[in-house]
């Protein structure tokens, strides 16, 4: 068996083991234990961002419950979220250390990094889905007002190849790849400009420093509602409630460009199923609180929880879907 096939076998075997473990012992319910003194929720992004804000809202929701007396958020930014995931290796498996991460670190990074310091299946244990969100593609004042949809933008780019640019929050992210796939569908290469997060990309878009930006829908809504930028399309399988008048890519004829992403909560690899189920109950209860749901909506996020089994299945499906897409695009983070 080749090294690559061996790694794939290990990953898929690990995912299967997670599902079997939860099916066999998860139904027994959570063990009756005293509340933990402190639970740390780790995020791979700095304070003030979407991931951090989500963690802090959920931390408020779980503290003072049967699960934990206190909940803290620990920011471990760096390497595009990798450092936080890596920190799960060797962390306590008693439910006191929980990772919150966007899906990309687990579903895409294993396909674009030749050497990744963690295994997306063996080093984390699914607890609960946190939320889902779609992506938008917007243009600013650097693009004529006559351009009102994706096809018109691609036609304009063909006529102005020196201006066929778009930004995204990071190289190797879903928004990056959406731009690549849109260009391929239109028969034109769009030049990608990676930013360190969505906020600076949107700032440049508003200022006319870049023609277009691909990013989560919630990152655009304030400026779009103010008329400073224009949505051309969204990536979901249906229109976003945060931009209800914007047609999806699929509605505009790009049937294969249906993408959303999710945030999830994970325990360290090897966490016993009863501990996972106990954490799942606490996090699902927090995510159902109205202030948490409303707070996520302000950021363009749909609160949506799950069982551990459902998150394990979603992770494997997401990982399997992105493998062929990354191969088609031909992008590697090491190049």
What is the total tally of β strands?
10
Radius of gyration: 20 Å
Biggest beta sheet summary: 8 strands, mixed
Order of helices and strands: HEHEHEHHEHEHEHEHEEHHEH
Indicate the CATH architecture of the largest domain. 3-Layer(aba) Sandwich
- CATH homolog superfamily of the largest domain: Bordetella uptake gene, domain 1
The first-level CATH class name of the largest domain: Alpha Beta
| CATH structural fold name of the largest domain | D-Maltodextrin-Binding Protein, domain 2
Q: What is this structure's SSE topology?
A:
Elements: H1 3-25, E1 36-43, H2 50-62, E2 68-75, H3 82-86, E3 97-102, H4 104-107, H5 109-112, E4 124-139, H6 150-159, E5 165-168, H7 174-185, E6 191-194, H8 198-206, E7 212-216, H9 221-225, E8 230-234, E9 260-268, H10 273-287, H11 290-298, E10 302-303, H12 308-329
Parallel strand pairs: 1-2, 1-3, 5-6
Antiparallel strand pairs: 3-9, 4-7, 4-8, 4-9, 4-10
Helix pairs in contact: 1-12, 2-10, 2-11
